Amino acid sequence: PAGTFGFERAEVTKGGVKTEFLDENLECKSVKGLYFIGEVLDITGMLGGYNLHFAFASALKVANALKNS
Q1: Is 58 exposed, middle or buried (0-12, 13-18, 19+ CB in 10 A)?
Q2: pTM for this one?
Q3: Can you tell me the distance from the alpha carbon of 60 to that of 12, in angstroms, rounded to the nearest whole number?
Q4: What pLDDT score does 7 carry?
Q5: pLDDT tens digits for 16-66?
Q6: What is the helix (H) or strand (E) element at residue 57, kind and residue range?
Q7: CA–CA separation, 62 and 9 (whole Å)
Q8: Distance between CA 54 and CA 28 in Å, rounded?
């Protein structure tokens, strides 16, 4: 990249639920039954649809965990 378009057009910002507080199924370790998916998590990736892929993949992961519980 040659530069940025500034914060007004930013695609990724810092923050969200830290993954260290979640188990492998994205369930909160301290509050059973509370799951987090997608962009609410503190995960940053490349632009180009990867955030959408992660949102769908994390939702599928949680859906499977709920189905199997």
Answers
A1: buried
A2: 0.77
A3: 22
A4: 79
A5: 999 999 999 999 999 999 999 998 999 877 767 788 889 999 999 999 999
A6: helix 50-67
A7: 30
A8: 18
